């Protein structure tokens, strides 16, 4: 049996599920199930190799030569990448690199500029 959350308004433990929400029978308060899952997603923080927090639109610098899969091109150390976009997945960063094009980078190979 799964443990349902207590009511955020009156702290009652007698809550129940009703479709896509929880309901408290004591005070009548209703709240969305999504609120629980959104808190876990908001906690995901992307950091660079040195622990600096990255955000959409930041500029970063590559700290290691990176081979481009399917090509003989190499992203050289010191390459500055502007206007990054953070995404979910193995590669945390979507960006465009001059001379190479659009690609995904792992945050462990960049530092905030």
From TrEMBL:
Domain Protein YjdM C-terminal residue range list: 46-113
A Pfam entry, by short name: Zn_Ribbon_YjdM
Gene3D superfamilies for this protein: 2.20.25.10, SH3 Domains (2.30.30.40)
InterPro entries assigned: YjdM, YjdM_C, YjdM_N
Domain Protein YjdM N-terminal: 3-32
Family assignment from sequence similarity: Belongs to the YjdM family.
PANTHER family: PROTEIN YJDM, PROTEIN YJDM-RELATED
Protein name (record): Alkylphosphonate utilization protein
Organism: Methylomonas koyamae
Upper classification of the organism: Bacteria, Pseudomonadati, Pseudomonadota, Gammaproteobacteria, Methylococcales
């Amino acid at each position: 049996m799964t443990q349902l959350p207590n009511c955020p308004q009156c702290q009652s433990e007698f809550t129940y599920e009703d479709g896509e929400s929880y309901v408290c029978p004591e005070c009548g308060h209703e709240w969305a199930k999504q609120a629980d899952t959104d808190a876990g997603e908001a906690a995901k923080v992307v950091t660079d190799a040195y622990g600096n927090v990255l955000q959409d639109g930041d500029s970063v610098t590559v700290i290691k030569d990176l081979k481009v899969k399917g090509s003989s091109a190499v992203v050289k150390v010191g390459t500055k990448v502007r206007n990054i976009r953070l995404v979910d997945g193995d590669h945390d960063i979507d960006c465009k690199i001059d001379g190479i094009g659009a690609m995904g980078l792992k945050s462990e190979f960049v530092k905030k500029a």
